[in-house]
């Protein structure tokens, strides 16, 4: 493999969590993907709530805000999603909306407050677009209190409101590089013991990483090394991107959608330029 | 010696303080004082003052046996008991809850009934019980409805179970009586005379009885060596006063005063003067009777007057009768005053340290109410006497009901509480209870105000005195004029209630009988005897006061005498020990653990029992493990700061006590600051002020409370880094703030000057959201003549009609419906009132009644959704409509936030999440502050909190950041390393905008942030044109009046400096109060316009007038006219521009 060739390696692939290692992907592009995931990959989220009754201690705007935070299963076709994103950014939001209904009442015989959770949020029509988790607490009701509401979910982007963002963290780290100057080193194991992630060791009189990806680049070892033999750097050409989804979309779809959005934008640009 | 194998010092201190607060509550001082007041003082005052003699002589009315309320059926506990009542306009009485009083704007009171015994000549009628007035009830006191209710019952009647009580409800608003710091009463104070006067030394005593009867007696030594006693501001030579008290010969007087011959010499001049004025007792009385002014005495005969004055106006706390026994007591006390005076004068004794807390007393709700009640009853008596005199003409039996006007007493008391103006001249005694958050409420209830003039410097009084340790919070005091004068009690400070009169005299008796104190008069041979004082009086002598002190202290620890009695040893000028025993009210005491022979009396067994609730705080006090010391007795104590110190000491037996909790020196607010012992001290003071502005959950019944304004934080959190103080005080149940991921870094320069950078996604996810409430209300008043207000949608014809759009949101009944969105100036409650001149005009024009629109509209600059509509009746039976409007507040640019270390800042940049830096774990900070916030402020506590917060978040636990004993920063750093983080709290961050790794490692962790109630939405204001003031025609001032922004002197200077004359004129004239006036050039006065003739007329020059129109500021025109009205003649000389 040549030094400039792009390589992609899936490190971890779990439901809701994806780690991909990129080599020779430019920082700008990588960061562009990260930013697109956060801000431009569309998901469904509740955006409008109509209360027909609310005798709970929690105000309408408060409940509405909480409902918005509930992640909702979104149809996971990257092609469609990316087009929706482009449309929203182009000022033509899709008409697609999902209606929900919620009615909760705390019967007096319950003897304790009733916790209303996301499973009581019933989608009308589109059965798939239900809350990702059933046990998200929405609010509590005291005796005889009633809440009845209709909610509407729409597509939106993370940059409009954080509730539309499909991920909680999306993060990449560059590959840590350890530069050890053997000639300067005096026998001291300070820098090994000081490392909070225990990723340093001596091998054949040379300081090496046990696993470079454990290093958090905190430079504690560098500071502890009085002789100045240890130096921690990072290699921007190798990076690991981790996507932790909220559940509304699978991480791979998120990644693909983000890339499609970028591509479509580039295509738009080139069309506009007229090439 | 048994070792102290406590789990941790902090656990023990927390446990002890918690048991104290759980049992007594943080407002015990008010409750104790009020309960004592209603049990005894209240009766005594009424019986003492309420004696009425008709001026015509024969009839005498005496109040007896006053009682508070009558036991009525209490629907909440199902018992018969005395609880507050309300009398409706139709005279039906029924029990009332505090919430009903708040909602309907009523006062939470209990009726006072009193028996009146009437004697008419020789006939005595049977006693008649009459309602004489109402007394406000303190919440959570023994006669409050809430007393004895369970948590669920409290919730049922609308109370917050965590509400501390200790306040009153007056006309629906919560008012507290702020504790007043006072110089000790009935104690002698000696001070140097003013430097520019002829007075060398002054000895003063402020003599107060428990029924709030107060006078000051003063003795002073002048430069010519004479001693005078002031009675009611009249100067009486010392010898005369003694003679009036039955001590006639100079020898008697001298030996009464002192047995020190050197001091006796100093009396010579006074004796010489006394000789010339009065030589016998009756001569002395006559002299006093003639000299003392004041029309309060009834007899005209000088000797009688003298007697009366001596009895009631000289040292009344020793008794007000004329018996020789009382007189001797007074003479002895006066003698002591003069002895002290002389001692200070010759320098053998220091003047009294007025700032020593042993010399301070707190006047609490009960004492202050006594003053009001006394005054109110005096008024009541005056009125009653008047009514009695008037009714004497009529025949038949005297009917008390007809004579008593019950509202008089009630109104006086309620008025004092509602305005804070006390009959003794103090103002601001009662205040509206601070309900910004739970801490501010508690802090307000524990506030202590000094009566010293805030304009005066009084530097010593403002300083922290060492005796305030553990009594007064060292941090919590306002900045500015009130610094050091407004204080707050420390967490464990307790205020003495004082012995009752009977208890007190019984105790004094026991000193003589049981402890061998020899009464003053019985002593003839003074050798080897040591003095014993009780409540400021010299009461006798004892062979060995050290031993006596030991006896008393051990009796106190075994519960045989009250734990409040203070036993302090001092020394007289000649070095002899003296014993000062004090049992009066208002002393600030603090609990300490007793050390016996170098060992703490608190054993691990106690701790365990306390933890399992088998023991209570009061059990420890009863067992003598813990005792209360006041500042006087603390002077005798040697206190170890903690068990460690005691254990490691080489001489543990030198210690007498151990501190309960080193952090309990802080007050309610300062104790929530984590690691405050690492902060620069003013920062803790700033935070103490700021924590009281933080939004949180101020009361759990906020939904039903009719507060005129309030804020609720949507997601209040317990702090991750907490303190024992915060736990004990209840901050964690009613928190005010949120844990925030904080990065300390610059960000594009937006963090300059303490500004905050906040993550947009955090805001969108609910960080710092709050709801603001405002209450609008309207009463449907009835006027004399059958006119009445009407709550309805006003007709178009009504005067002041605002246009139909403004009334759009009103329902048929003229009130908005709940959940309606309202914007500025829209009407909330529509109301039509009869015009002020309506009745007159009606007859003139013959038409309908002229009506006026008096609708209540939303504040101009506000908006909100209608939250709650309350329709009820006020105390006069008028319909009362209250509408609460709520407004959702999402943090926006300019909103103010602060950490718990006095680090405040405003939001300057809301950053999209993708632009924020992130850590390798993907953590994105919620807030970023600039590192420059730290070096000069030295709030190291916040740095430690950040690391501690990070550890707490990672380990999913709360970290103990209690000052002095919290988790060590070192162990927190180790924990961080263990958790895989750089122990310094720094991390490598990647810039979200460029994707580059930031060159420097960033300090990032979790810090508790408070949202303060200064929000942009309440302040933002601008105007182009608008209202002007009527008098000057200049634009109005202030946001509430839609005012303009002032173009002030300094701005004017700028334009002058730039030579921008046209702009200057534009600002100050054209766009302000430009007006055109006509001036006669001949006389220089303004002329008027005669519209009939259509010309200007000069009243002075008539036809010869040469009138010109001039543009001037209206304020200038006004000034001219005002000068003219003063008889000054200003003349205007007109000319062309450039002419001279
Ligand atoms: S930079 Fe920090 S994490 Fe990386 S090797 Fe050095 S000490 Fe360990």
Automatic annotation (TrEMBL), chain A:
**Identification of the protein by name:** DNA-directed RNA polymerase subunit Rpo3
Instruction: Indicate whether Iron appears among the record's keywords.
Output: yes
Output the lineage of the source organism.
Archaea, Candidatus Marsarchaeota, Candidatus Marsarchaeota group 2
Q: What is its main location?
A: cytoplasm
Please give the cofactor(s) recorded in the UniProt entry for this protein: [3Fe-4S] cluster
Q: Which organism is it from?
A: Candidatus Marsarchaeota G2 archaeon OSP_D
State the family named in the UniProt similarity comment for this chain. Belongs to the archaeal Rpo3/eukaryotic RPB3 RNA polymerase subunit family.
> How are cofactors bound according to the entry's free-text note?
Binds 1 [3Fe-4S] cluster.
Q: Which SUPFAM superfamilies match?
A: Insert subdomain of RNA polymerase alpha subunit, RBP11-like subunits of RNA polymerase
Localization (cell): Cytoplasm
TrEMBL record, chain B:
Indicate the segments forming the RNA polymerase beta subunit protrusion domain, all copies.
25-410
Q: Where is the RNA polymerase Rpb2 domain?
A: 185-363, 431-494, 532-595, 617-662, 1043-1133
Q: What class of enzyme is it?
A: transferase
Name the InterPro entries on file. DNA-dir_RNA_pol_su2, DNA-dir_RNAP_su2_dom, DNA-dir_RNAP_su2_hyb_sf, RNA_pol_bsu_CS, RNA_pol_bsu_protrusion, RNA_pol_Rpb2_2, RNA_pol_Rpb2_3, RNA_pol_Rpb2_4
First-listed, main subcellular location of the protein, grouped into a coarse class = cytoplasm
Localisation per UniProt entry = Cytoplasm
Any one cellular component term from GO for this entry?
Answer: cytoplasm
> What's its job?
DNA-dependent RNA polymerase catalyzes the transcription of DNA into RNA using the four ribonucleoside triphosphates as substrates.
Q: Could you tell me what this protein is called?
A: DNA-directed RNA polymerase subunit beta
Q: Which organism is it from?
A: Candidatus Marsarchaeota G2 archaeon ECH_B_2
Q: What is the lineage of its organism?
A: Archaea, Candidatus Marsarchaeota, Candidatus Marsarchaeota group 2
